[in-house]
Amino acid sequence: MDISVRAFKIISTLEAISFLVLLGIAMPLKYIWDLPQMVRVVGMAHGILFIAYLVGAYFMKEKLQWNWKTLMIVAVCSVLPFGPFYAEKKYL
Asked: What predicted TM-score, i.e. pTM, was given to this entire model?
């Protein structure tokens, strides 16, 4: 497996986990228990990973010769809970 594909898989997994932690842990802490600190930390990490995921997806388009439709599907998966896991399994 190529190093760039492996790196994208790692970024994809981390992005998906950060999104799930943000939605499942940080947001309830903020809105139910009035503890917004975790949203700041996890939100920033997720934002960086989200951008890295989208940039990596574009590089994967070039490397794996995806068409634009595949790239858009992979990009849309980044905003769905568990979406990056699906994209990784289907397209990598």
From this structure: 0.92
